[in-house]
TrEMBL record:
Name recorded for this polypeptide: ABC transporter transmembrane region 2-domain-containing protein
SUPFAM superfamilies listed in its UniProt record: P-loop containing nucleoside triphosphate hydrolases (SSF52540)
Organism: Suillus placidus
GO BP of this protein: fatty acid beta-oxidation; long-chain fatty acid import into peroxisome; peroxisome organization; very long-chain fatty acid catabolic process
Cited CDD domains: ABCD_peroxisomal_ALDP
Length: 705
């Protein structure tokens, strides 16, 4: 039996090299396909939802209970929130946003193709320069200038389309938010979300900032993140494919292993930028809210002399924001050092090694290795490698951008979810006490449409659980003016909020007309931004007024009824615009509000100290005019002069009790006068006793003499 003698090691290596060289094209294709699949898989894993650990879940629950900011991360919750918002900003493939996204994608691909051509052209220019080929050098320069035309055009268009895309996202999202936030008259009890957010729920303290700033930042980040993800991934595939053709797929595999190892280290060092972004937005909103309170209550603060207290509150909010931003800056500093050291310098050294492969090693299929060819190959490969390195770096940076997008997504999602809960009647409010009060807040009564106003066993409860009246029952028919009296905090304003559909009904049955049949005139009327005409017709526009067949002459007649006809000429006409809350006195504001009432002619008018700043004779004229127009009045006032205009009275004692009865104005006025007379006489008793004591002393002194 003949046994074969094993080949020496050097011969086996040589034989293996020959087999490899014979099959190298197939191996190259396999490695290239594997690289493409690896890039796509790695990108998917890097951007996919990361599972939340048990410890993180427990911490989130504890933070939510303590009122601390909840962790924000690129996880399943983020992608779920983002998918909901994406359906809003890109409603279908035929929308303007989808078209802009397609244009953006096409421009990104075109720019990558130009970059590949420029990398090759760059190598040819240097090679012709090294070889001393002047004509070839000039031709290459001409090609360089010609390619600059589509390159600059593409870059400008990319910036333009990206900004258009961000604006389109913001417009679409703002419209959807405002539709939910302001709603319309047809929404009924589901509307008034802007009121419920600030009065019936504690989750959002600064909706104005979320609607303006947070939506704008979210839209910008969403438009940028697409270019920062899709373009770099495409660049990594195309640049490295071309690079593999020049230096071999083996060098590409080696480079990939080194880059991915260092990238894993960098990813492990990446802080939670999403949480930091959400916290920064929340702290900035809290600071803005504190400033807005100072402007809103400037008069009260000035009277109290509360400047130091308000300054301390603002400084506290600002200090919290600065402390947070300082911490984030510190983390960004050391992360930036690690990021640049790995991405720029370490990866750059890897690239130089790969570019040197064709110089020090002879690769099959590549010949004519003179100085010019080597220079051309090195410059081209160097250019491709720099572009690929930049693309990989942008993929790494994009995770930070994605984390920041997660922060803004959580803010926008919180706004959308809270408004959705408002429309469903779900509120989260801190209670003054639990137990029975909490049970009442979780229950709901019935609201039925009717021409009359009728309450049957309805509890009057504030949104924070304070029970003002456990069971209120009364009935008011059209034309029966109701006077409501009682101390502060007894439930007068709460009753009006239920009638206006602002507060939910927590029990019993409420029969009332729709909210559009009520109009409120508070002690300090609201004057909108707009013309003088707008103040009388609010919330109607001029077009709405004309559609009703009302002219400026009719409006002037309405103003004449409240003795304000001269204001049109005094202010410069109907179309003049002022800051009306500053231009008019308190009495004129109340008269404008009454003129607004006479213009709209609702079935019911809620008057909350609405005549406190007008003369008594004017007050009587306005009451009589409202009655003549068929408006039923629900009045809160402490002026006895108004009693005679009302037929029923609801008297609240502030202790949970009430009396509802017919109002005999003359009898009640007589009782009031007698009461005041007796109170005056009782005030004189101490003086009379003192005088009596003095007279007794004088009399005793006279007898002793």
């Amino acid at each position: 039996m003949v046994t074969s003698k094993p080949l020496p090691l050097d011969q086996r290596v040589k034989q293996l090299a020959q087999v490899y060289a014979a099959h190298r094209p197939l191996v190259q294709r396999g490695l290239t396909v594997g690289f493409v699949l690896y890039v796509l898989t790695a990108a998917y894993r890097g951007l996919a939802a990361r599972p939340t650990t048990r410890r993180e879940k427990e911490k989130d629950v504890a933070d939510r209970k303590d009122g601390k900011p909840v962790r924000v991360a690129v996880d399943a919750i983020f992608y779920q929130r983002l998918s909901i918002i994406l359906r809003i900003v890109i409603p279908n493939i035929h929308s303007k946003e989808a078209l802009l996204l397609f244009m953006h994608s096409s421009l990104l691909v075109f720019r990558t193709a130009i970059s590949l051509y420029v990398a090759t052209l760059d190598g040819k220019i240097v090679a012709s320069l090294v070889r001393g080929q002047s004509l070839q050098f000039l031709l290459n320069i001409i090609r360089w200038l010609l390619v600059a035309i589509p390159a600059t055009w593409t870059n400008s268009w990319l910036s333009y389309v990206q900004n258009k895309l961000a604006l389109a996202y913001r417009t679409r999202l703002t419209k959807e938010v405002l539709k939910m936030y302001l709603g319309d008259e047809a929404d009924g009890p589901e509307g008034k979300v802007y009121y419920k957010l600030s009065n019936l729920d504690d989750r959002i303290k600064n909706a104005d900032q979320m609607i303006t700033h947070d939506i704008q930042r979210f839209s910008t980040h969403l438009a940028v993140i697409y270019a920062n993800l899709a373009k770099p991934i495409l660049d990594v595939i195309l640049y490295n494919y071309q690079l593999s053709q020049n230096v071999g797929a083996e060098g590409l595999v080696l480079l990939t292993v080194l880059v991915q190892t260092s990238a894993a280290l960098l990813r492990a060092l990446t802080p939670s930028f999403g949480t930091y972004t959400a916290q920064s937005a929340a702290l900035a909103g809290s600071l803005r809210h504190t400033h807005s309170r100072l402007s809103e209550f400037a008069e009260e603060i000035a009277f109290f002399g509360g400047e130091e207290t308000e300054k301390r509150l603002i400084e506290r909010e600002y200090a919290a924001l600065v402390q947070h931003e300082q911490g984030v800056m510190n983390k960004r500093w050391w992360y930036g050092c690690a990021e640049e050291g790995i991405v720029k310098w370490l990866w750059g050294s890897f690239g130089l090694v790969v570019c040197a492969i064709p110089v020090f090693f002879k690769l099959p299929g590549i010949s004519n290795f003179d100085l010019g060819s080597r220079t051309e190959g090195f410059v081209t490969n160097r250019r491709l490698l720099l572009s690929s390195s930049d693309a990989i770096g942008r993929v790494m940076y994009s995770y930070k951008d994605l984390a920041e997008l997660a922060g803004y997504t959580s803010r926008v999602s919180l706004l959308l979810d809270t408004m959705s809960d408002m429309r469903k009647g779900k509120f989260e409010k801190s209670l003054v006490s639990g137990g029975e009060n909490g049970e009442i807040l979780r229950s709901r009564g019935q609201v039925l449409l009717s021409d009359d106003i009728q309450f049957e066993n309805v509890p009057i409860v504030t949104p924070n659980g304070d029970i003002l009246l456990r069971s209120l029952t009364f009935h008011v028919k059209p034309g029966e003016h109701l006077l409501i009296v009682g101390p502060n905090g007894s439930g007068k304003s709460s009753l009006f909020r239920i009638l206006g559909g602002l507060w939910p009904v927590y029990g019993g049955i409420v029969r009332k007309p729709p909210a559009s049949d009520f109009m409120l005139i508070p002690q300090r009327p609201y004057l909108s931004l707009g013309t003088l005409r707008d103040q009388v017709t609010y919330p109607h526009s001029q077009q709405d007024m004309e559609a009703r067949g009302v002219t400026d002459a009719d409006l002037l007649a309405v103003l004449e009824r409240v003795q304000m006809g001269s204001i049109v000429e005094r202010e410069g006409g109907w179309d003049v615009t002022h800051e009306w809350r500053d231009a008019l006195s308190g009495g004129d504001k109340q008269k404008i509000a009454w003129a607004r009432l006479f213009y709209h002619r609702p079935k019911y008018a809620i008057l909350d100290e609405a005549t406190s700043l007008v003369p008594p004779d004017m007050e009587g004229m306005m009451m009589e005019q409202a009655t003549a127009l068929g408006i039923t009045l629900l009045t809160v006032s402490h002026r006895p002069s108004l009693w005679k205009y009302h037929s029923t009275i609801l008297q609240l004692d502030g202790q949970g009790g009430y009396i509802f009865t017919q109002l005999d104005a003359e009898k009640r006025l007589a009782i009031q006068e007698e009461k005041q007379d007796l109170e005056t006489k009782l005030l004189e008793i101490p003086k009379m006793k003192l005088r009596l004591a003095e007279l007794r002393l004088i009399a005793d002194a006279n007898r002793s003499m």
